[in-house]
Design goal:
This protein is an alpha+beta fold and about 230 residues long. Helices cover about 40% and strands about 15% of the residues. A 4-stranded antiparallel sheet has the order 1-2-6-5. The chain has a two-stranded antiparallel ribbon with strand order 3-4. Helix 2 crosses helix 6. It starts with about 25 loop residues before the first helix and ends with a helix. Bound molecules: 3-iodo-tyrosine. 3-iodo-tyrosine binds next to helix 3.
Length: about 230
């Protein structure tokens, strides 16, 4: 394919050979089992230790998230990693203010009923206990250096996949995280100084579990409940 000029000075990529390691079926299945067992030990907890976590571990998880596939390879994500205690405190105060309204009457009754088994409420101590709070912003469109808008594609799907990679990387390093979605979360753009094309998608406290951290004793759906074979 010849390299040609397309819109906005973008260029087509040159194509290079795929680097791929072919494994035996036996090895593949063994690795699949090991990965499943490890991922099945991942649990969401609300109880975080204040123990510090080196920035390098967060960098590794963000770089892993950045390997996610994305619509038109536009990589429409920004990870804001917060360790500053004052910013975490502000974020917690603002999130709890929204959540007080949510739990105090704004949320429809069936939503509150759906959350009741998990025991969530407007108190979010994990937002200040956890040594890191990472906010994933979705770039709903791109902005060129000259401030011109560029359409981005499948940004929800792309950022959802990136968040999954991020959480898997944290889990592999022995860290825990919580996918928190303050409702609404428009306040995060101003609080964290992000541009107009970015929308906060999920807030993830990250750290070690607190001593005595607990999780609901829930089970995951069986394969035959989540898969259909044709
Ligand atoms: N944003 C609220 C409510 C909430 C909603 C869902 I869906 C959850 O899975 C958990 C909580 C909160 O963070 O408490």
């Amino acid at each position: 394919m010849t390299e040609r000029q397309i819109a906005d000075g973008l260029r087509t990529y040159p194509f290079v050979p795929l680097v791929h390691e072919r494994r035996t079926i036996e090895d593949s299945i063994a690795r699949g089992h090991a990965f499943l067992a490890d991922m099945n030990r991942r649990r969401t907890t609300r109880h975080f230790s204040t123990e510090p976590v080196p920035r390098e571990m967060i960098e590794l998880a963000i770089r892993t998230a950045g390997t996610a596939p994305s619509g038109a390879h536009q990589q429409p994500w920004t990870f804001v990693a917060i360790s500053d205690a004052t910013i975490k405190q502000r974020l917690r105060a603002a999130a709890e203010q929204e959540e007080r309204q949510f739990y105090g009457g704004k949320a429809p009754a069936d939503w509150i009923d759906a959350l009741a088994p998990l025991g969530t409420d407007e108190h979010k101590p994990h937002l200040t206990d956890a040594p890191w709070v990472v906010v994933l912003f979705r770039q709903s469109y791109g902005l060129t250096a000259e401030g011109k808008k560029r359409t981005f594609y499948y940004t929800d799907e792309s950022c959802g996949i990136a968040a999954g990679f991020f959480m898997a990387a944290l889990h592999r390093m022995g860290l825990v995280s919580l996918t928190h979605t303050p409702n609404p979360m428009g306040f995060l753009r101003d609080l964290l100084g992000r541009p107009v094309n970015e929308k906060a998608m999920v807030v993830m406290p990250v750290g070690y579990p607190a001593a005595g951290a607990s999780v609901p004793d829930l089970s995951r759906k069986d394969l035959d409940e989540i898969a259909v074979w044709l």
